[in-house]
Target: DUF2933 domain-containing protein
Amino acid sequence: MCLDWEVALGLTIAVTLCWTVFSVTPVAALPFLLAAACPLSMLWIRHAAPPQAPASAPGLAGSA
Model:
């Protein structure tokens, strides 16, 4: 599953903000939140992952 608890918390905060600030019911925001859940989760995973060294290309080392 691509939904982390931190992403679920962020989506909950987004629903609360939409409900209080913009007077949008949570049911009306549901299609947006369902569409945004997986991409937000992937961004969070990319952000939380440790940096990796770039892989060297095999043919570029000796060419000059």
